[in-house]
Amino acid sequence: MALAVVLLSGGMDSCVTLVHAIRDGYEIAALHVNYGQLTQARELQSFNDVCDHYSVGRRLVVDISHLAAIGGSSLTDVRIRVDEAHLDATDVPSSYVPFRNANILAIATSWAEVLAAEAIYIGAVEEDSSGYPDCRSEFFRAFENVIRLGTKPGGHIRIVTPLIAMSKREIVADGVELNAPLHLTWSCYRNSDVACGTCDSCALRLRGFQQAGTPDPISYQQRPLYL
Amino acid sequence: MALAVVLLSGGMDSCVTLVHAIRDGYEIAALHVNYGQLTQARELQSFNDVCDHYSVGRRLVVDISHLAAIGGSSLTDVRIRVDEAHLDATDVPSSYVPFRNANILAIATSWAEVLAAEAIYIGAVEEDSSGYPDCRSEFFRAFENVIRLGTKPGGHIRIVTPLIAMSKREIVADGVELNAPLHLTWSCYRNSDVACGTCDSCALRLRGFQQAGTPDPISYQQRPLYL
After folding, report:
1. Least confident among A42-51, A213-222, B34-43, B190-199
2. Distance (Å, rounded) from C-alpha A115 to C-alpha B76?
3. Which residues of chain A are within 8 Å of residue B147 when distances are taken between CB atoms?
4. Which residues of B are less than 8 Å from A135 in CB distance?
């Protein structure tokens, strides 16, 4: 059975992406990357819960918080802080990693090459790419070319981005249709027990569910209307 | 003064590469990557010695040994072990990282973006690329394209490979001519006190010096003739 490495953060998008990889017929190797974020332990729990749900035994957790520290400690460019503000900057002081997806894809490729996997699935969404140039299709195509040139001849590792053109509403609808275990996922940037409902990540998620006309199965401290 | 990130392993090639970056007029940010190799502490010392020699204050040490563990623990492909044999495989049991240069360049790019650096210098040598497809010019050009697409618009980070077309003999001759502090560098895979002179890395280095007709300034337990 052909193998795919799936990047699984513990959030909703990567969970739906995993379901796509399974439906595409792949055996799964799930990769989780920590980068020193506040809710790291909670996201890792969601990663493991989702893996358990689908009986994914092949798991790898990699810590890149040393790398994330570059962003926090060496940050001297005021423009970067401004760009980050809309993502509730007070909650993610050192989690911003420039070129993050390239770092994650490089790790995923190393693992994929060792496992002789055929594909890497990543839940990137182009709509989210404002300020994140490494979320766009052309970036992933270029990285695929680097993989082709930088790995052993004969291997062909594709990068698959099933959600790339979707809105959050469409991702929720897709996840519900595919019976994805969205109740096991975690999105809140602020809390690790009950999601706050008001950080930008909660807001995006709740708006997605509200627009899709379906209730979010997790609990929130507040559920403002974001329609 | 424009800034360049220089990948500095502590070995000879990266030391000579650093001198090129300095002569090209750059202020230096030196990046060292550990990956759990046996002689890690000795190489880090050489990194710091070479930085001290050129008064490079801006230094970053990143550990990717979690990543390197992929190679050791998950390795099931017998061919990979065979490929490694000529590099004295008994000494580098878990240090082989597939797609290593992409991982290192991704880290370097993250740092370069934060620092607004213009260039990344890496001492890759195409001649060494047998079995390492991520040492070739076309790989670096493709990665440059990923940088262009995956970093903020307006930045232009070049990848510079001054040694790419050189032989070990030419690197030694070049280093001697540029007055590079080769006496501070470390190449041995086996020892951390006195270089063995017989591991593949020592052999390549000694042969380079012998062919260049100049004595290697470091001490060896043995100095076989490799001409």
Report:
1. B34-43
2. 8
3. 99, 102
4. none
Whole-angstrom Cα Rg for chain B: 17
Are B103 and A101 in contact (CB < 8 Å)? Answer: no
Bridge partners (DSSP) of residue B3 are B27
> Which of B114, B134, B138 is the closest to A75 by Cβ?
B114
Q: Distance between CA B83 and CA B75 in Å, rounded?
A: 13
ipTM at complex level: 0.87
Distance from CA of B144 to the nearest CA of A (A): 9
Separation CA B176–CA B215 (nearest Å):
10
Q: Which of residues 57 through 96 in chain A touch B, CB cutoff 8 A?
A: 60, 62-63, 66-67, 70-71, 74-77, 80
Least Cα distance to A60 among A18, A34, A31, A103 occurs for: A31
A194 compared with A1, residue with greater pLDDT: A194
Digit-coded pLDDT (tens) for B127-154: 865 667 888 999 999 999 999 999 888 7
Specify the residue for token string 């195409």. Answer: B126
B78 φ/ψ sector (left φ>0, alpha ψ -120 to 50, else beta): alpha
| pLDDT exceeds cutoff 70 at B186 | yes
For A72-96, the DSSP string reads HHS---HHHHHHHGGGTGGG-TTT-
